[in-house]
Sequence to fold (166 residues):
Amino acid sequence: MERRRDAFCGKVSVCNNLYQYGIPFSLTELHTVRPDSASFRSDLLRFTAVCKVVNGMRKARLGAVGARPNAFNTTRYSEKLLEASGISVSTVDLSEIFGNARRLADDDVRVRAKLAEIGGYADSSQVPQPSMVLMARLAIVLTVMRPPNSGSTMRREKKRFSGVEK
Fold:
């Protein structure tokens, strides 16, 4: 306990230097903890989990469907910052999604399979059938148009989808 003050000063100094050099860092829940404490183990597990998420996001490909409505400022993001972290964003117009969904027939094998899949995990008995069919169509289109390995692959998938293969 007599060296707790030194730990406090050291932590402030290290955090200050990391901040000045723009190096991201995380902190423990409590200001100072013993390395053999339950609190430290908990902080270490949280840090490990954050590292796994960050590493999992590297080279991620995200799909943005439609423009963000003006009232939803909290959903803004910076493509530039994401790309600097190795995350790419592919956007698709909402009208394109609905247009492709309309091209699918209600009795399309994929639509029927998606309806069965949804019915397998959710009670849809109170949902009107036309709404369920639309939901199934949209799910199919969004699955087909998800950002694949490259932009050229995405363009190829979009062209292929236009033919609505069964």
